[in-house]
Amino acid sequence: MYLKRISIINYKNIREAELSFSPKINCFIGNNGEGKTNLLDSVYYLSFCKSHSNTTDTQNITHDEPFFVINGFYDLGDVENEIYCGLKRRQKKQFKRNKKEYERLADHIGLIPLVIVSPNDSELILGGSEERRKFIDGFISQYDKRYLNSLLAYNKALQQRNALVKAEVADETLLDIWEEQMAQHGEYIFEKRSEFIDQFVPFFNEFHAFISQEKESVSLEYHSQLKERPNLKEMLKEVRQRDMILGHTSRGIHKDDLDMKMGELAIKKIGSQGQNKTFLIALKLAQFDFLKRIVKAKPILLFDDIFDKLDAGRVQQIILLLKNNRFGQVFISDTNREHVSEILKSTGCEYHLYTVEGGNITLSEKMESL
User: Fold this and answer.
1) SS3 of 241, please?
2) Helical H runs in the chain?
3) What is the pLDDT of residues 94-132, one digit of tens each?
């Protein structure tokens, strides 16, 4: 499975691009702000129906332009699949597979498995618990449709309950209905998150030990109120009066978190930039390996500026990972031509090398398979 070619019009600072890709390694070299990350983000968009960095879709349209279009052509193992996304200002986003529009964007999630390693990932460590829940939810949703549907239903029920507890006089009957919905879907989500973390941690430990050369001891632990009280319906009923004073729902799986530690302390308090980045890269590569075993295919892997802040030893370990052919199609962006040249020289894989300047993307070098 890989992205064969892409057509982009008016996506961020990329006004127009027509690119064909290697099924192995694709590298994008340029200074900061030239458009490397935007190119990788367009590939991400075709998998997840949204940008990795912008929450508002219209912010992705090139300034002073009325629309953007991204068209990707994939080899999914059988026939070529065309994925189209188009957005006009003040209109609904269109998402199509082989020219047929999706009724729900959620139906597309999981078709093209993808993992991105990005500087934005620092929020997983430094940000609030919502960022870490997004990481878990986005991952499980790629292979478990019921999980995604339960998540959407839970969030809808949570929104309705929050509106009720803010009201001057809450409708007890409606509260019963929405709490029943939260409990039904929340308990399933908790079960799947617990299963995922139990299976995921060994993958994470393996990658972290390899990249850091076992120089740090780290851990990853799932925290949830449902670990102590598995009956969410009872818990919600008990805190109704308190929640009416607070004006929001204080119990549920929307309070879950991941505890990230180095030694006995939170890594965000004591980790250096390099240690934090190693933790995040190990997290994402574990995500790749775990997802690959679930979907029985190699996801597309995006490396956005991952070598910055890493010492030479850790860079070399990542290059060794790329060399052993455990990944499928890989996209790499970097400002440092030396890093990329070392990767391409050491792996011996087929590759395409692009230069990015002012949103213009030019193929500058390539090596095809023999």
Assistant:
1) helix
2) 36-48, 122-126, 129-141, 145-166, 172-212, 232-238, 240-246, 267-270, 273-295, 312-323, 337-347
3) 999 999 999 999 899 989 999 999 988 889 999 999 999
- Name residues whose C-beta falls within 8 Å of residue 359's C-beta, 6 or more positions apart in sequence: 12, 13, 14, 15, 34, 35, 38
In whole angstroms, what is the distance from residue 134 CA to residue 26 CA? 27
What is the per-residue burial (b if ≥16 Cβ within 10 Å, else e) of 236-245? bbebbeebbe
Tokens describing residue 11: 């996506």
CA 208 and chain centroid, separation: 19
Element housing 363 (H / E): strand 360-367
Cβ pair 326, 333 in contact under 8 A = no
Give which of 363, 257, 370, 272 is closest to 28, Cα–Cα: 363
> Using only C-alpha atoms, what is the Rg of the chain?
22
Tally the C-alpha atoms within 13 A of residue 291's C-alpha that lie toward its C-beta: 27
Closest among 344, 258, 302, 361 to 40, alpha carbons compared:
302
d(CA 253, CA 232): 9
Distance, CA of 329 to CA of 326 (rounded, Å)? 10
Which two structure tokens, joined as six digits, stand for 126?
């430094």
pLDDT value of residue 278: 92
Per-position b or e across 246-281, b if 16+ CB within 10 A of its CB:
eeebebbbbebbbebbbeeeebbeebeeebbbbbbb
Task: Read off the pLDDT of residues 179-238 as tens digits, 9 standing for 90 and up.
Answer: 999 999 999 999 999 999 999 999 999 999 999 999 899 999 999 999 988 899 999 999
Chain centroid to Cα 141, Å, comes to 11
pLDDT of 370 strictly over 60 = no
Name residue 330's beta-bridge partners. Answer: 25, 301
28, 14 Cβ separation under 8 angstroms: no
**Alpha-carbon gap, residue 298 to 350, rounded angstroms:** 17
Amino acid at 1: M
Please answer whether residues 239 and 251 qualify as being in contact, where contact means their C-beta atoms are separated by less than 8 angstroms: yes
Q: Which helix (H) or strand (E) holds 11?
A: strand 2-11
Q: How far apart are CA 7 and CA 85, in angstroms?
A: 11
